Amino acid sequence: MVHKRSLRLLVKQLERLIMQYISFALLFHPAAYQPGEACAAVAEGGTSSAATLLLCRACGHELAVGTDINFVPSRLALSSRNDTSIGGRRINVQLFENPHGHQFEVITFRKANVTQHWPANKHFSWFPGFSWTAATCPRCKTHLGWAFQPTDWPDTITENRFEESEHTFLALITQRLLREDFASSLLVTPQSFKS
Ligand SMILES: [Zn+2]
Asked: Are 55 and 177 contacting, i.e. CB atoms less than 8 angstroms apart?
């Protein structure tokens, strides 16, 4: 008779391995990365407020508001630039490169409505002292960026612990975000269709 307990353990280990592989694959093989693409989240003009909603560009799911943005500088960034189109605030956009040569422009957030994939990985972190997990869209599963937690924390923590700590943050890929006011400007009914 197969030992149920060891089978369950094996399945658990397998699940853990698969999740690790997915996080790793997401970091190194971004599906939809287009280096030349304009930054939709911060560069598409128009007036906005600090409460500007930031959406998943792929499905429109609400991810964060402008006030969730919080600059976390990294000495590993290839470059850093300012952008002022979210609520007139200065938003720092940093450029990073992963070990496979893929570059990502990211904005750092205090919190965001994303799905995280623990256990966290200590290797190849863009923020020294922090481990990362992949962060995906809760609705369409698009890879949106990474979440960071202190390296000396356990690899797997609860969502609550992540959210409540001041030592955690996220780096979301600018090209995968869309500003809500830009999205609604796409949906404005032309004058001629109104009665
Ligand atoms: Zn989405």
From this structure: yes
